[in-house]
Amino acid sequence: MKTPQPLPEELRGRPFTLVDASVAGISPRRWRHGSLTYRGRGIRADGPTAALPLGARVRPFIEVNELCAASHVTAAELHSLPQRRQDGGSEVYHLIRPEGAAHLDRPHVIVHRMKLYQDEVTAIDGVPVTTPERTWLDMAEVLSVDELVAMGDACVRVPRLDFEGRSMPLCSRWDLQRIIDRHRGKRGLRTAKEALELIRVGADSAQETMLRLAIVRAGLPEPELNVPIITGDGVRHHEPDLSYRKYRIGIEYEGEHHGGESQLTRDIARSERYAALGWTEVRISKRHMVNDAKPAAAKVLVALAQAGWRRGI
Fold first, then answer.
1. Disulfide check for 75: which of 116, 135, 144, 172 has CB 3.0–4.6 Å away?
2. How far apart are CA 300 and CA 152, in angstroms?
């Protein structure tokens, strides 16, 4: 086989469609050359694609299929929403088409045909994708209530502009209620309704959501989320992940990133601030989240009891 002519730079190292190839001046012979990986009718790839951003990988599959948008697991990942960790394996993308559209049977894609309104599709880097609220509702088909609450918390949280480049939530609780009301009879609706009642604004991670749910289900008061400590002189201090201002208790979830020396220094300084303010710090780690986070809830119960809280009072 002859050495193929180099591809134009804009097509190198990524999947592309027949239209992309035509626009770039690729000949039919070069399109059929064995050096390109067949990804389905009308799609070729120049080498491995697993390391590419998800948007670049899924875009060709949407463009060759009319009326499609990324949905379900694929849309959740594009929106950076928390979801159940997926096992490794073959590269598969979820797409949605309006109900009544022709059935599609292509490699690498799972196509969902269901009711879809125009305002339920947005774009991320030019890739059509279901909106956060529609994605949340679709994921109710496969997630548990708690997992769906975590995803909903991520949808409605107010991001930090300095860190995330945006200050508006992906959607509101009203948007989630509206999408439920619009799709009566949809699979997963019961899970979505139950999850909506438990969604709160303020959680910065799925772990914080799971911790909050475990605390409430243990019969303890519901904690506030990322509310700053403000002392009597009006000075604003740090924001505990979860807290009980009445009992001066702050709960901090420490993820895996808390193992570094610099983070350890910051954690010690934070503990010193708690002590100086007369607050109790409750530190929760991954080992407390086993067995439905019952050890974490038990640790919070001890702190509440020591601060004077009693059940039924």
1. 135
2. 24
